Automatic annotation (TrEMBL):
This is ethanolamine-phosphate cytidylyltransferase. Its EC number is 2.7.7.14. Keywords: Lipid biosynthesis, Lipid metabolism, Nucleotidyltransferase, Phospholipid biosynthesis, Phospholipid metabolism, Transferase. InterPro entries: CCT, Cyt_trans-like, Ect1/PCYT2, Rossmann-like_a/b/a_fold. It comes from Parnassius mnemosyne. It is an enzyme of class 2 (transferase). GO terms for biological process: phosphatidylethanolamine biosynthetic process. Belongs to the cytidylyltransferase family. NCBIfam families: cyt_tran_rel.
């Protein structure tokens, strides 16, 4: 290391938020924040704080802490971070500035949660990821439609009939959470990918599944699978395949969204996009797979009735893993359904506060530019 590199000041970046149902949008925001510095510290609010200012979170605080720790760009997690970001918080963790997406977050009183750090010029903004939000995902589960996984020329349209009331109507929509499209690109996949290849001496482990609504059950399983070797490859089934063996309106997230969610996990090295349901000899030989793992959940037969894990079983390299976590995607959906009215109320209030603050900011901007009658406060 040169003297110049030694003298270079380490830039510490602060991010905070609820990080509920930690999805690839959150991960992308954290990826961008990490790129602005050297160390990324992420503060996460408690269930009590979130319930006070927004409404009930879907994931518990312990689940959210664990999920964010597993995102590959995060260096440290601060539990129970204050809802309003203060200069004292930044100083406590030696952070140079705070980073957040270009959407608006407000307290229960409608106050911008970043107003203090903005005033002190210790705030940076990154573009939010279009096409996904916790509110949108909750809405998809409550609507129980297949709007989120269309085909043909509509393949990339996501929740175009997003409901502000999470399933009770399709009229109002938030300018920040009423997302209309997720547009996958090769660049986005490259940004999320580790870019690594297994070394000749690496023991390659393969797992496959839907990994829909990426949650702590998935996370614990991937951690256990990662421990079986040196290089973990995850096969993700197509939307049509997932719908075949899971039925209902599954998957909640389309294939492109699930790819980014899995790639953001620090235990994963590579993803096979649209992997075959049956683990074939060709697949194993191509990736030099030495261990194939599956969790304790039941294994559905392939479309022809065959065992999808017959080949790795015949080769003596199939392992059933007990991650110690029995959570499933269906469990998450049931949480939403049980608390439907609470989530509907949460979303309505959130949009009302966003709209009110947005109008205030627009009015202030017009006043500053002399486009308003300041005396009469009319614009």
């Amino acid at each position: 290391m040169s003297d110049k590199q030694k003298d270079k000041k380490e830039i510490r970046v602060w991010c905070d938020g609820c990080y509920d149902m930690v999805h690839f949008g959150h991960a992308n925001s954290l990826r961008q924040a990490k790129a602005l510095g050297d160390v990324l510290i992420v503060g996460i609010h408690t269930d009590e704080e979130i319930s006070k200012h927004k409404g009930p979170p879907v994931f518990t605080q312990e689940e959210r802490y664990k999920m964010v720790r597993a995102i590959k760009w995060v260096d440290q997690v601060v539990e129970g971070a204050p809802y309003v970001t203060t200069l004292e918080t930044l100083d406590k963790y030696q952070c140079d500035f705070c980073v957040h997406g270009d959407d608006i977050t407000v307290t229960a009183d409608g106050i911008d949660t970043y107003h203090l750090v903005k005033k002190a010029n210790r705030y940076r903004e990154v573009p939010r990821t279009a096409g996904v939000s916790t509110t949108d995902l909750v809405g998809r589960m409550l609507l129980l439609t297949r709007e989120h996984f269309k085909r043909g020329d509509k393949e990339y349209s996501v929740a175009l009939e997003h409901s502000s009331n999470l399933g009770t109507d399709s009229t109002a929509r938030s300018p920040y959470t009423g997302c209309s499209q997720f547009l996958p690109t090769t660049q986005k996949i490259i940004q999320f990918s580790s870019g690594l290849s297994p070394k000749p001496t690496d023991k390659v482990v393969y797992v496959a599944g839907a990994f829909d609504l990426f949650h702590v059950g998935h996370l614990d399983f991937l951690e256990a699978a990662h421990a079986q070797g040196d290089f973990l490859i995850v096969g993700l089934h197509t939307d049509l395949e997932v719908n075949r063996y899971k039925g209902s309106n599954h998957p909640i997230m389309n294939l492109h969204e699930r790819v980014l969610s899995v790639l953001a996990c620090k235990y994963v090295h590579e993803v096979v996009i649209g992997a075959p349901y049956s683990v074939t000899a060709d697949l194993m030989d191509h990736f030099k797979v030495q261990v194939v793992c599956h969790g304790l959940t039941p294994i559905a037969p392939d479309a022809d009735g065959s065992d999808p894990y017959l080949v790795p079983k015949q080769r003596g390299c199939f392992k059933t893993l007990n991650s110690g976590n029995s959570m499933t995607t269906d469990d998450i959906v049931q949480r939403i359904i049980r608390h439907r009215l609470e989530f509907e109320l949460r979303n309505t209030r959130k949009e009302q506060k966003e709209t009110s603050l947005m109008k205030t900011l627009q009015r202030d901007h017009l006043k500053q530019n002399g486009d308003c009658d300041v005396k009469n406060d009319s614009c």
